[in-house]
Amino acid sequence: MAHLTPSHSTIVLLELRNIGFHYPNQTSSILHHLNLTLRQGERIGIIGDNGCGKSTLLKIIMGLIKPQQGELILLGKTRRNEQEFAEIRGPIGFLFQDAEDQLFSPTVEEDIAFGPLNQGLTPQQARKQVHDTLQLLGLENYAQRLTYSLSGGEKRLIALATILAMQPTLLLLDEPTTGLDNFHYQYITNLFQKLPQSMLIVSHDQKFLTQLVDYTKILKAGHLHPNHP
Amino acid sequence: MLINPFALTNSPIHQLNPRLRIILALLFTILTITCQHPSSLLISLTYTLTLIPLAHLPYKPLFNRLILLNTFMLLLFLTLPFNTSTLTSPLENNIFSPGLHQALLITLKSNTLLLILTTLISTLDNLTLARTLYQLKISPKLIYLLLFTLRYIELIHQEYHRLYQAMKIRGFQPQANWHTYRTFAYLIGLLLTKSFYRAQRILAAMRCRGFRGRFYPTQDPPHFTPSDQIFTYFSSLFLTIILGIEWLI
Ligand SMILES: Nc1ncnc2c1ncn2[C@@H]1O[C@H](COP(=O)(O)OP(=O)(O)OP(=O)(O)O)[C@@H](O)[C@H]1O
Ligand SMILES: [Mg+2]
Q: How far apart are CA A39 and CA A196, in angstroms?
């Protein structure tokens, strides 16, 4: 809320130019001529109808699916192939819409440590990172829990921890508040307000968005429009 | 829901050094497969039988495994004793003896193997197994193959439960009719496609967190503890006896 555009730095973290995309088995494009710029410190919300392509857009930014058209400039470089995208995973953290798919290690501790270890931390440093992240989220006593036995909301919180543990500069959040109880909803809202990261937040929750983002855009008919209520 | 219930408990065996466990399992497996003497087979069986109580294995899944294996072995007993052509010792014109002997040997060997692998290897969770194999300088490609195969089986299993529950809450009861056959055909079809996409999404999740084809240990490679040492002596004793029997007799 308090983030006003002029105070933002001029460093552009993410720039999408003219993105066009359709799934191979579909005839019409989901996204076309889509443009978006996000600067360091900025927080942008994205809203839009079910199935309009919000999650698809985030997957394109992460390089998980390749657009047929357009250019992605992430963290100062054009990204085209897998190798170039591999460099941004970590600095850009992505919270999946479905947390079920995001956890794959037997214990919470192992799962959260996976990212930091891939970033080259030693086992001790990684364990400390796990501990610090859990503490940040108020989930200290979850370290030894088995991931498959967590509830839906717990899985979401742990999935968030796995991303924060990699100390990203930009967060892509796909409906971060779904499935959270009142307490954790408030907790996450307050936490996000305090976090230093730039964010691109997809959400259907207007109340949540107005508390966090500088402005929202609507994804409609394949591109992003300014949101004038 | 979980495919490997043996890795979830904790016990003296679970505490042992994973590398030691894998190496011992390998040695005992090779010896059990190749041994000629029934007495060395009995010694390897005794070895695993002493390990089972130490491993605090959940009994139900263990029995299920054994029952599955031995149902298959039953087929051997039904066929091998009457198959005289391929087996040796034709002079003894007793049609049971060589075939039955063979069937008994195979049954004993496979049960021993199953128990060895269950106590020493199944008690490792997938990631620990992968990491340990990595430390043992096994080709990473083979390790991923193993790891993703295990993961895939687990996913199919989970999806099956989820879909079957979704069917049950809408009143589905399997019967001998077309509706049931068609539903099961859909179930299997859906199962394979869904698990395939799910596996892809999980690989995507791993890539998002910087996975580039290497697993790093969360712990430093475990030290060799005094109990590892004791276990090594204990196992070596059995190994020596088996080798002794095989060579000397
Ligand atoms: N793997 C896929 N193959 C083919 N079509 C897909 C695939 N994934 C999504 N789609 C289709 O693409 C469209 C956009 O999907 P997407 O998941 O991006 O929507 P969304 O905006 O995130 O919706 P929601 O608000 O429901 O999460 C949908 O119509 C969907 O059916
Ligand atoms: Mg979505």
A: 13
Q: How many residues does chain A have?
A: 229
**ipTM > 0.90 (yes/no):** no
SS3 of B64, please? Answer: helix
Distance from C-alpha of A89 to C-alpha of B210, rounded to nearest angstrom: 6
Tokens of A101: 């798919």
Q: What share of chain B is helix, strand, coil (3-state, %, to 5)?
A: 75, 0, 25
Task: Determine how many CB atoms are found less than 10 A away from the CB of residue B3.
Answer: 16
Report the 10 Å Cβ neighbour count for B20.
19
Q: Searching chain A, which residue's CA lies closest to the CA of residue B199?
A: A101
Give dist(CA B90, CA B229) in Å, integer: 49
Short-list B234, B216, B121, B145, CA closest to A116: B216
Determine the distance separating the centroid of ligand 1 and the alpha carbon of B60, expressed in angstroms: 42
Read off the pLDDT of residues B183-224 as tens digits, 9 standing for 90 and up: 888 888 888 888 888 888 888 999 999 888 777 766 667 788
Among A62, A117, A133, the residue to mutate for chain B (most B Cβ within 10 A): A117
Nearest to A184 by CA among A216, A159, A214, A210: A159
